[in-house]
Design brief:
The complex is a heterodimer of chains A (416) and B (103). Chain A has 416 residues and is of the alpha/beta class. Chain A has helices at residues 7-11, 45-51, 54-58, 93-99, 118-131, 144-156, 170-177, 190-200, 214-219, 222-231, 248-262, 284-291, 316-326, 335-349, 355-369, 407-413, and strands at 12-17, 23-24, 39-43, 89-91, 104-108, 136-140, 159-165, 182-186, 207-208, 239-243, 273-279, 330-333, 379-383. Chain A has two domains: 7-81 and 118-217, Rossmann fold, CATH 3.40.50.1100; 89-114 and 221-394, 3-Layer(aba) Sandwich (Rossmann fold), CATH 3.40.50. Chain B has 103 residues and is of the alpha+beta class. Chain B has helices spanning 38-48, 52-56; strands at residues 14-16, 30-32, 67-71, 74-75, 91-96. Classes of the chains: A alpha/beta (416), B alpha+beta (103).
């Protein structure tokens, strides 16, 4: 990409409070000291508009970094990359036929380097942290984030501490520990881990990906929607189904779609309807949606969809508002529906997703069967993690016949 | 410090103040109060360092959307809310809600 040496000072203005609008310099902080509201990166879109074209994006690398102009990393900062993003958008003909949807697409983000969408946010966070002189990276995680942070910290040569609930899936622990971070296994839920990290962070010069450098980290999520629009031929879908944990990425997809519209990068004028998916075993946002309030009350999670089991979702209120504002809904599925959806996706499309993906596909199927769509809408479901991360959920699945190594045994037991 | 059955100073409930609010507590990271429930503790904190109550509670007297309150690491919204009883040496943590991305 052409270098723009003095661009950053004008492109990224600083941080702005989503609640009170107070503005701050670029720094490692996530909370507005005035009102405790969340801080977001503020851009000068006038500068970006003059610079950014479809052609410029398409001539960029085949990764999410082709959207660097809409990410908060200085022009001269090196990217810590493992080739994240630009994952396949596949048209789901067979799943669509089963659900009566003729234009159903799956954004398969399990194809990222550590097999979840977390590589997008972590690539931005660790690039930013290294560029700003941090030597130690941390995160509070249910598993996938720790996995990504450990890998990218290894890639960047940074010290790494990941905090996890001690009952995190074995697959995720192995895939994290191989990168040799310090794993802090906490006797509690993710919400306990998160609260602890918020307190630990106060006295340490560390960059916690999803806490103090969260404004930068969160921006990486936008690239999922940027890519989806590009892969659809520079148009936004009619509706996107998104798993909800903290609600962080849901909020960013709203922003990403708005940026594409405002910058004239996509045809059309309408935001996609944004629909959220939760597991009933941890559904604080769904409960608020059903109750008609955006006041989200915390719950104690109890679900196999552990990667999205956040009982106290920080962006929950915004999810409710955005779903309402865009014409989406928030829906939830049972544990059985999660497992059925994992199998449905595998059987019809050859994609093996983790339990969080089962939640997304489960909600998609539930809404389709309930008649939410007429069948012609362009609908995209974000499949955010790979099935091998939660293999136990479907461990008893599949047809298996054990035979002697003889033709006779084959004919008797297998051939029909 | 002698009101509550002669408890020592370090046996009364203590607030842990997060960085963004330490400007209200004169830079102190911890503030002790005398109270037997969380609501009274917030009143006592306000009496010591005016300004806290408005930052923690909304107009209806409920915890603000972006404020999480924990008594001994338990989220009070999962229990008795502002009515949460306090014992000697209990720790009250004020934690900004904006943290923690998904999985």
């Amino acid at each position: 990409m052409p270098s723009e040496p003095h661009l950053h000072a004008r492109r990224v203005l600083g941080l702005r409070c989503r609640e009170c609008g107070a503005e701050y310099e670029v720094q490692a902080t996530h909370v507005c000291p005035r009102c405790f509201g969340p801080l977001d990166v503020a851009y000068d879109y006038g500068v970006i508009r003059r610079l950014l074209t479809r052609q410029r994006i398409q001539s960029g690398p085949p990764s999410m970094w082709r959207y660097r102009d809409l990410l908060p990393l200085e022009e001269d900062a090196a990217v810590v990359s493992l080739g994240e993003g630009f994952t396949p958008l596949v048209k789901a003909e067979r799943l669509g036929a089963e659900l009566g949807l003729r234009n159903l697409y799956l954004k398969n983000d399990s194809m990222n380097p550590t097999n979840s969408f977390k590589d997008r946010v972590v690539s931005v966070a660790i690039s930013w942290a290294r560029a700003h002189g941090f030597e130690t990276i941390g995160c509070a995680s249910t598993g996938n984030l720790a996995n990504a942070v450990a890998a990218y910290a290894a890639r960047a040569g940074l010290e790494c501490y990941v905090f996890l609930p001690r009952d995190t899936e074995a697959e995720k622990l192995v895939a994290t520990s191989v990168f040799e971070p310090t794993i802090v296994a906490v006797r509690g839920t993710y919400d306990d881990v998160n609260r602890l990290c918020s307190q630990v962070m106060e006295d340490l010069p560390w960059a916690f990906c999803n806490i103090n450098i969260r404004p930068f980290y969160a921006e990486g999520s936008k690239t999922l929607t940027f890519e989806t629009a590009e892969q659809l031929g520079w148009r936004l879908p009619d509706e996107i189904v998104i798993p909800i944990a903290s609600g962080c990425q849901f909020v960013r997809h709203r922003r990403a779609a708005q940026e594409l519209l405002d910058l004239g990068l996509v045809d059309g004028q309408d935001l996609p309807r944004l629909t959220g998916a939760q597991a009933l075993g941890c559904a604080p946002v769904y409960r608020a949606w059903e109750a008609g309030t955006d006041r989200v009350s915390p719950v104690v999670p109890d679900t196999i969809a552990r990667s999205i089991a956040i009982g106290n979702p920080s962006d929950g209120p915004y999810v409710v508002r955005i779903a309402r504002e865009t014409g989406g809904v928030v829906e939830a599925v049972t544990e059985e529906e999660i497992v059925e959806a994992i199998r449905l996706l595998a059987r019809t499309e050859g994609i093996f997703t983790e339990t969080a993906g089962g939640v997304t596909i489960g909600v998609l199927a539930k809404l389709a069967r309930r008649g939410r769509w007429n069948g012609d809408e362009v609908i995209v479901a974000y499949v955010t993690g790979h099935g091998l991360k939660t293999a136990d959920a479907v461990a008893d699945a599949g047809r298996r016949v054990e035979i002697e190594p003889s033709l006779r045994a084959f004919r008797e037991k297998v051939a029909v | 410090m002698t009101i509550l059955c002669g408890k020592e100073f370090d046996q009364v409930p203590v607030f842990r103040i997060p960085g963004p609010l330490r400007s209200l507590s004169g830079g102190e990271a911890t503030v002790t109060v005398e109270a037997t429930d969380l609501r009274a503790a917030i009143d006592a904190l306000e009496a010591k360092y005016p300004g806290f109550k408005g930052r923690l509670l909304d107009e209806d007297g409920q915890p603000r959307q972006f404020v999480n309150l924990f008594v001994n690491d338990e989220d009070v919204r999962l229990g008795q809310g502002l009515g949460a009883p306090l014992q000697e040496s209990d720790e009250i943590a004020i934690v900004p809600a904006v943290a923690g991305g998904a999985g």
